[in-house]
Amino acid sequence: MKIKKGHVAVITGAGGGLGRSLAEQLASRGCHLALIDINPQALEETREKVQRPGIDVLLFTTDIGNREQMEAMSSAVIEKFGTINLLINNAGITIQKS
């Protein structure tokens, strides 16, 4: 897929590491971003690194293991941008057996 200016990218695990690096790369190419992480402070730090004129950045403090939170996030992204061009599932979850 060719990444174009104005594309919309959703990145889970965007609070640091690979997720933050991908957000920086996509923002440098002119992508609008929806960034997801469970750590709100880390998300703000990522926003500071990627925010630039002409780029919309939405932050979602979301647990990707929570279906309701993910549906609400998805609806908000579609409402704002109308589409999602790129989804990067970078976050993981742990499922504990009782």
UniProtKB/TrEMBL annotation:
InterPro entries: NAD(P)-bd_dom_sf, SDR_fam
SUPFAM superfamilies xref list: NAD(P)-binding Rossmann-fold domains
Molecular-function GO term, any one: oxidoreductase activity, acting on the CH-OH group of donors, NAD or NADP as acceptor
Keyword Oxidoreductase belongs to the record: yes
Keyword Ligase carried by entry: no
Pfam families registered for this protein in UniProt: adh_short
Protein keywords: Oxidoreductase
Family: Belongs to the short-chain dehydrogenases/reductases (SDR) family.
Protein name per Swiss-Prot or TrEMBL: Uncharacterized protein
